[in-house]
Amino acid sequence: MKRWAALLAAAGLIFAGQQAAPAAPQPQFPDVKTRAKGIIPPGGVLSSKTGGNTVDAELRETRPRADGRYHYDSPKLIQRLKALNVNTYLFGIWESPTDWDDLRSEFAPLARAAGIDIWLDLVPPSECQADRPEGPYLEGYCSRPFKLDFVAWARNIATLSLQYPNVKAWQIDDFLIAQNSRLFTAQYLAQIKATQDAINPNLGFLTTMYLGDYTDEHLDRIAPYIDGVLLPYLGGGQSTTDPRYVTAQLDQLLAKLNPRRLDLILLLYTDRFLDAALPPSPEYVAEALAQAMPYAADGRIGGIVAYGAPVNHDRRPTVASNNLAQTGDGRLSFAQGNYVTAAAGGFSEAYQQITVDPAAPSHSLRFATYDQVSRTPGKSQKLFKEVLIDDRVVWRSDIADEFGFTWAPASVDLSTALRGKTTAKLGLRLSVQGPANFPFDVGFDSLVPTGFTIGNHGFEDVNPATRGWRFTQQSPTVYGAIEKITPQVAKDVYDVIAAAFGGRPRPAVPTTPSGPIPGDLPRTGTSYQPGGPGTIRNSAMYGKGRLSLYVPERTPTVAGTCVWAEQRMAVDPNAPRYEISWWDYDTLSADLAGYHMKQVTIVTSKGKKLLSNLDAAEAPKLWMNGQGLWGAIDITQFARGESSVLLQFALCENQGVGDYLVDVGYDEIEAVGLTVTNGGFEQGATGWTIVSPHPGMKAQVLTAS
User: Rounded to an integer, what distance in angstroms lies between the CA atom of residue 579 and that of residue 59?
Assistant: First the structure.
């Protein structure tokens, strides 16, 4: 009846004296260009995006095709996107030269049939490694085939959008970073816009801008030529675990963008970000989406992109070395990412009210702490791990102690602090005593109380209603949380996104009680040794094995010395091309640049060629694929015509050192056109020759128990 009354009123057919039923309030959409072009669906864009350098966000086929390339697995990707409840997919054209053709010939028609819109994602000069005169082996990811000719991209994307109307928009990453701003001048942006508008004036054109980029100068320069921006949300600074600022940042930027008729799309990291200390947890993703979804639903923002949504969760399990807990799967973490500074006076604290037995003969607390900070002078006297009773410090330790990268046991006598009490407030804190401009991750775990009880003493319960711990966050950059890494974390994140995008309640967070703390944990701290006491239980990427190339603490080395593992690999003479791919990892402090180099070398009948030479101090403390940010290496020019080649994976000393450890890991070594034996090191050293000629350096295969 209300529907008919509304129609009659609209036609002027409500008679005098009759009252039409009040119309439901309609969302007041902002007057922005994307809405005028019709590229934002009702409820906003709900999108997934494959992330650069993520590990499970991209679905490619498991075997290379006849061209020797791994193509998008478009049918399975569509299936996963439908189950994720997206209405749009931000299709990345970056990792393979076949991405553009995969989009045109396979993904676009399947997405159209499935009712999924497409936005294209291209990279700027800072993320394009192409046209190297030395040869293809030094090339890497880039948006191909048109690379950095964005006028050509505008022409071809606009033409494709006429063939497939579900191609709604495209975006270029990071206009304003580094050398990119020199290319994207007002004149060049005007040329891009004129080119696409001449073909399809309703095609959207956007860019990615980080929080600090939204100055009036920047916005006034680019606003005439773009339709909107994507905001990568990073908490108070380089964090993908801190949801405190979602709504505040959206409100802040809407006030700047709406007057310029620019739409705002929230890009939420749901897989790792290279400059963050920790990967996003299911609990973080759920909370951030709960804050952002109302903004998309009522039209205040244009939508949400789940960056790195783990659509490949069945093929790529959780990275094993992400689990840093001493026991079980959970731990308390205080972390800060790269390129931010924790200001003196700030802190982050987890606390709970404990029940004290006043008749107990003694009161004490045993626990373990962990940090990824090596013992270097520039990091001492800045950050302190603390235990507090009723807000008074009863134990503290500098994070730049002897025991970086290991769980160090500690204990504190609480007899005086708890004397005569039946309850008390127990706090675990990271305190900032001096400006700390470096990344860190500090952990507490395995709490064993005597004379009192602690809830969730092993940090296995992450349910906010039952976890026992509350948090005080008194720093915008340091964030405390319970981090729990289980084998199904990627699937849990996927399910959280699917529920939010599908309008369903977030999945229930399981309540997992902490079990007894094992009695055989180390009682004294030891310096780091790969696989030794106090280290994390599994440092492999996947499975249980990895290659470890290691220099211990306080061990002198000589410039030019190396340790390595090598394997002779048979060459398929009929392969269309040849490539080698690997993942590497290191635990070196970033302030020791120029000393330790990660090197990959190929030896053929024609000689020896260094394929990759990366400073271990410059890479993130994460598993990275191939030569830094550029993926697998094309070795066709070296392998063609050979019956076999020798590949060496090495740690080499660029300068001699007398102190400070480094442990470089290699794992998941794969190839196209070559036969690799035991590339995941799951059969120990089978297939590999381990070469460790220098007494101060060690090469070995580690296998978790």
Answer: 19
- Write the CATH number of the domain with boundaries 545-703: 2.60.120
Tell me: pLDDT of 518 over 80: yes
pLDDT tens by residue, 575-605: 999 999 999 988 765 567 888 999 999 999 9
Q: What's the pLDDT at 485?
A: 96
Domain 35-307 has CATH 3.20.20.80: yes
* Bridge partners (DSSP) listed for residue 525: none
What's the angle, vertex CA 518, arms to CA 512 and CA 520, rounded to 5?
165
Q: Supply the CATH classification number for the domain 320-485.
A: 2.60.120
Contacts of 69 (CB under 8 A, 6+ apart): 96, 97, 98, 577
Domain boundaries, the chain: 35-307, 320-485, 545-703
Angstrom distances, CA of residue 187 to CA of 181, 194, 628: 12, 11, 33
Of the pLDDT bands very low, low, confident and very high (cuts 50, 70, 90), residue 3 is very low
3-class DSSP state for residue 699?
strand
Of the chain, the percentage scoring pLDDT greater than 90 comes to 76
Cα dihedral: 351, 352, 355, 360 (round 10): -20
Rg for the chain (alpha carbons), in Å? Answer: 28
For the chain, the average pLDDT equals 91
Output the furthest CA–CA distance in the chain (Å, rounded): 100
Q: What are phi and psi of 673, to 5 degrees?
A: 85, -5
Cis peptide before 145 (omega within 30 of 0): yes
Whole-number Å distance between alpha carbons of 321 and 537: 8
Same CATH fold assignment for domains 320-485 and 545-703: yes
In this predicted model, what pLDDT tens digit does every residue of 52-73 receive, in sequence order?
A: 777 866 789 999 999 999 999 9
Instruction: Using alpha carbons only, give the angle 599, 600, 602 rounded to the nearest 5 degrees.
Output: 140
CB-CB contact of 360 with 452 (8 Å): yes
Report the number of secondary-structure helices (H) and strands (E) in the chain.
14, 30
* Per-residue pLDDT tens over the stretch 431-446: 999 999 989 999 999 9
pLDDT beyond 90 at 346: yes
End-to-end, the C-alpha distance of the chain in Å comes to 69
C-alpha 12/C-alpha 5 separation (Å) is 10
